[in-house]
């Protein structure tokens, strides 16, 4: 078996290609301002927890993060030609209506291999304020031991100039603010429901604080 036949290697290479595409598209269509990217560990597993207010939040992070990112993306996005494309650039399909064990295995595999997993902890696009978190982020963080880096994607709140309501106006500035890495667990290694619930509370507090700080920093 060659390297290109090995799923893990192919996925990592695909994510690297996806990063290149993200850089070209995001810097070509918008004006990203990246703050604090040095806070992302240069090596080893890490989870990027991103607020989700625009359809470009995932691609924006793929194009501005210092390392290739594997995002958990809802299965509804994998339609037509987007299916092989998203798979080809190392993105992971997840069925949000059930416990998707394949997606869980794939995501943990990314972290086990020392990669970067991107998660929208709110589950779906909304206000992007981390007000309602799902337990998945806590599970992956506690199970893998990977640190979490909070990320705030801000900008495009203005209606004027929008071609599509879910996108910031073209050529507008979008701020991407990376926060300090932190551990979600309490150090005990417990994976009980109570431990995960407590981790979710800790995560929400850290993410909400980071978002507030990012808004103050950027004036958004």
UniProtKB/TrEMBL annotation:
The keyword Transit peptide does not apply. One of its GO terms (cellular component) is plasma membrane. GO terms for molecular function: 1-acylglycerol-3-phosphate O-acyltransferase activity. One of its GO terms (biological process) is phosphatidic acid biosynthetic process. CDD domains: LPLAT_AGPAT-like. Keywords: Acyltransferase, Transferase. Residues 46-156 form the Phospholipid/glycerol acyltransferase domain. It comes from Streptomyces finlayi. This is 1-acyl-sn-glycerol-3-phosphate acyltransferase. SUPFAM superfamilies: Glycerol-3-phosphate (1)-acyltransferase (SSF69593).
